[in-house]
Amino acid sequence: MATSTGWNYIQTPNSSPNDGGVVRAWVKAEITGRNGRTANVTITGKYDYSGSYIEDYDSPFTITLITPWGNEARNDSYISTEEYFSKSGTLNYDANGDLTVEFGIHIDNGWLGQTWSPWYYLYADNIGKAESAPPAPTNPSCKLSGNSNVVISWSHVGNSSSKPLTGFYIDKGEDNGVIQSGSINQNTSASQRSFTYAGAVNKRYCFRIYAYGSGGMSVGADTPNFVYTKPAAITSASEGRLYFQQSASVYDIYVKCDRSGIAWPGNAQIQLYAGGAWQSTIYTAATGSSDMVKVSSTTAVTALTTVYNSMAANATNTSLIKGRVRYANVDSSAYSDWKEFTITTYKVKVPGSIYVEAGGKAAYTYTKDSNGKITKITPNFSVNIRDDSGKGAYTYTKDSNGKITKITPNIKMSMLV
Predict the structure, then answer these.
(1) What does residue 322 show for φ and ψ, rounded to 5 degrees?
(2) C or N terminus of the chain, fewer CB within 10 Å?
(3) Nearest-CA neighbor of 393 among 243, 242, 254, 275?
(4) For residues 62 and 237, what is the distance between their CA atoms, to the nearest angstrom?
């Protein structure tokens, strides 16, 4: 591939009556570098005198280099050796990949009062075909590695003479998804097909990969998904509550979390501690936009049942059972650290049978402490207790915040009419 036009030559007629010498000039254009569809071009001129020397203080020679970026002139009244001068700039390849440059050199002189017409030459030359940029990478992907590192990978057909490949550049976008040029600008080798980016926790990332070579840079290939790193820690977890229905062998767990520091929260998980150990089951709750986390189980854990049975009737306990909560990121590829919370457990013991007077209502009222936790449950009807068998358990309803609003005994009852 041509990168220079070679020297183009002009000269004046006889310049000196003493030795018959002439002023000579040469000019050439050459490519000194490429960047995709743009080339760095230098136009160089040189001149000399074919005789012994020229000395003319009244009318010096003017040699002018003509370039696309303006002209460069030299005045010389004493020519005895070869002189060089140049001017550089950038030019764009045309749609066909050709680079054409117009350039020239101009000699002007008056000798001993003579007026000569200037010698002026302009050349138009094609000095090189553009190399094409390599094709874009294919199959771009990214995935989380550990808590915050992201492995970026891609495929590529590799090097060719017409589309030479030097390596790959990578740019990234963060939380808003806007790709920032030069944000990584990792210069990988032509053989590399993956790169590990050291990210930060509590972020999300996307990436764009380019192939580049002496013919320029390809279009970018975007990873099709976001990568979410490990969420930030939960600021606080409070109001842990466990409601246990022994007869039905079910329980509900509530905890209120401050997750304001988590940028991209997904579902929450809860794990219980009972019987001196963390239970193996981890419960997942779809939290949506709420800070209140609730999970339910239709099968009571043996350790919880043991704890519940060890409690006295109508008692509460804040130490036998506890919990911990954590949040996943959006795609559940990483989790925040666990945050422990206390749980207040309530146990209500009911006699086997109740006689309700005519017109009475089988309902209960309760009182709560300053934290909204139930401290006392009282029946709001008159009862006569009979010592026969019955079921000592209650069902209840709760509001949207998980607070008990109604408790109903599921015992055998006889109505007196």
Answers:
(1) -140, 175
(2) C
(3) 243
(4) 86
Residue 257 lies in a domain: yes
Task: Give the separation between CA 333 and CA 278, rounded to whole angstroms.
Answer: 23
Tens digit of each residue's pLDDT (9 = 90 or more) over 244-265:
655 555 677 788 888 889 999 9
Residues 14 and 118 in one domain: yes
Query: Hey, CA dihedral for 331, 334, 336, 342, is it positive or negative?
Result: positive
Rounded CA-CA distance 188/400 in Å is 54
Joined tokens for residue 256: 């209120």
What's the rounded Cα separation, in Å, for the pair 411 and 62? 118
Neighbours of 269 (CB within 10 A): 20
**Residue 336: DSSP 8-state:** P
1 belongs to a structural domain: no
Q: Which two tokens stand for residue 215?
A: 């013919």
Answer for the pair 77, 60: CB distance below 8 angstroms, yes or no.
yes
Phi, psi (degrees; rounded to nearest 5) at 174: -110, -135
CA distances from 81 to 53, 75, 78, 280 (A): 8, 14, 9, 93
Burial class for 317, CB neighbours closer than 10 Å (0-12, 13-18, 19+): middle
CA distance 100 to 123: 10
The C-alpha angle 66, 72, 75, rounded to 5 degrees, equals 115
- Domain identity same for 101 and 150: no
Residues 6+ apart with CB under 8 A from 357: 381, 382, 416
Domain stop point among 129, 149, 183: 129
pLDDT digits 0-9 by tens, 144-159: 999 999 999 999 988 7
- pTM summary value: 0.55
